[in-house]
Amino acid sequence: MAVLQTANLLLSPCSPIDCADFIDLERDPEVMRFLNGGAVDHENTDPNKVTFLMPRGKEPYVWTARRKENGEFVGWFCLFPESEKLAEVGYRLRWQDWGQGLASEGAAALVNWGFNIAGYDKVVACTMMVNQGSRRVMEKIGMKHTRTVPCNPGNLSGSEHGEVWYEVTRAEWAGNQT
């Protein structure tokens, strides 16, 4: 993994010193609203038994995002290898940093790295249908909606509408970059 720079962000491979910032994200009910309905109860939640990523700074596919100007923690991005040629991009940012284009900026940098350095042929992403902010990030970086699938409604508001999947191929990415 390499350190990636964008106009506003520095994306570095995560390390254990990022753990406290990652946990703070999980304790924020607004940040976690579409993942588990609110803040993570760390005393009763096993990170290995949840359906969402809870990085602790040891994951080889997670980059910590900090502002270039002052080093302030913004969130994290991941490019999880599903196979040799397929990866899933994901991100989690502090709510204070939403709406500034940082999620699109970081996700685009990671997708670009995935195609041009890691050699993936396709990158996918998913979110709840009702998560308009995350869907907009996917669309902004050139991903296309490919399917909607039902998800277990449980107690998560909006899950009854399903989960949406987006993707972009290496060829589509290259065509969008020119």
With helices defined by DSSP (H or I, 4 residues minimum), what is the helix count?
5
**β-sheet strand percentage:** 25-35%
Outline the biggest β-sheet: 8 strands, mixed
- CATH topology assignment: Aminopeptidase
> What's the Cα radius of gyration?
16 Å
- The tally of beta strands, per DSSP, is 8
What does the average pLDDT come to? 87
Q: In the CATH hierarchy, what is the superfamily?
A: Gcn5-related N-acetyltransferase (GNAT)
Number of domains: 1
Oligomer: single chain
Shape: globular
CATH architectural grouping: 3-Layer(aba) Sandwich
Secondary-structure element series: EEHHEEEHEHEEH
CATH class: Alpha Beta
Separation, N- and C-terminal Cα atoms? 25 Å
- By secondary-structure content and strand pairing, the structural class works out as alpha+beta
Low-confidence stretches: none
Proportion in helices: 25-40%
Order of strands side by side in the largest beta sheet? 1-2-3-4-5-6-8-7
Structural features:
178 residues; alpha+beta; Aminopeptidase; eight-stranded mixed β-sheet; 5 helices; 27% helix
Describe this structure in a few short sentences:
The protein is an alpha+beta fold.
What are the SSEs and their pairings?
Layout: E1 4-5, E2 9-13, H1 19-26, H2 29-36, E3 62-67, E4 73-81, E5 86-93, H3 102-116, E6 122-128, H4 132-140, E7 144-149, E8 163-169, H5 170-177
Parallel strand pairs: 5-6
Antiparallel strand pairs: 1-2, 2-3, 3-4, 4-5, 6-8, 7-8
